[in-house]
Design a protein that fits this description.
Elements (H helix, E strand, L loop, with lengths): L2 E4 L7 E5 L7 E5 L12 E2 L12 E5 L2 E8 L4 E4 L7 E2 L2 E3 L6 E3 L7 E6 L7 E5 L6 E3 L19 E6 L5 E5 L7 E4 L7 E3 L18 E3 L6 E5 L2 E5 L7 E5 L6 E3 L7 E4 L4 E2 L1
Parallel strand pairs: 3-4
Antiparallel strand pairs: 1-2, 2-3, 5-6, 6-7, 7-8, 9-10, 11-12, 12-13, 14-15, 15-16, 16-17, 18-19, 19-20, 20-21, 22-23, 23-24
Length: 270
Amino acid sequence: NVLFCNDHSWLTGIIYKSVDGGDSWTAVASMSVSSIDAKNGEFQVSTAMSGGLGLGGFTFDPKDVNVAFGYNSEVVVSTLDGGKTWTDNTALQLPGKAGWSGRGFTGWVCTSFRFDRFVPGRSGFQAMDGARLWISKDDLTSWKMPNLEPDPWNGGRDVTFTKSGAIYATAGTFNFTGIARSLDDGQTWKVLHGGEHGLPDFFKGKAPGGIYALPDGSKVWAVIDDKLMETRDKGEHWISVLERPGLQWIAADTKAPNRFYVSGERNVYK
């Protein structure tokens, strides 16, 4: 007679429970995402991923009706008390740390990984869909993802660090969703987009490519819509300095930072 179901919404996702074979249902858990607030007294599930609790299925422990698991492509959640509380089994929120540690299961598709050459122990990775821009400050032990515009999805592409503490990242899995910028070691963020910055608007054009900053942060380059874009004022204004078919990734010579390479459809440019 005990059943669980889920509305499969990627905006929040609500878990419902029935104890009478499906004649009646009660919302027992949900996850608030962005401006969506589904709090109606149900338990609020906390997960490492920001992309909702739209679960594709459930399974019970055959020996204990109070133990059940719900799952989708990004998360597995479980209850040990019949649905009163739920836990993310794919990532663990570490006590005393502002971040998450992985448990070995993920549906993420990583697009790039970068070590910060200037701050020991710090690194960042970008991934598709809901896994945009994760930062670790403790040698990959725990990770934190800032809340970035325009919504929890649309993925990330690349990230670059500077000696001054500025961090820049390109975002967008299928089209452009901005250049994320932090000027204070990742404490606060702004997403740059639109004509006022010389950039496309949200969801316009192709997905961006690589991004690279000089160690002192005086110049930053990013690949956007087959163009190598450059800024000299920390991202406020961008101009095109190279336009070639299929420009994509940037690789720098760490011993001579002014020398870097950009991959293209037919060539590599130096």
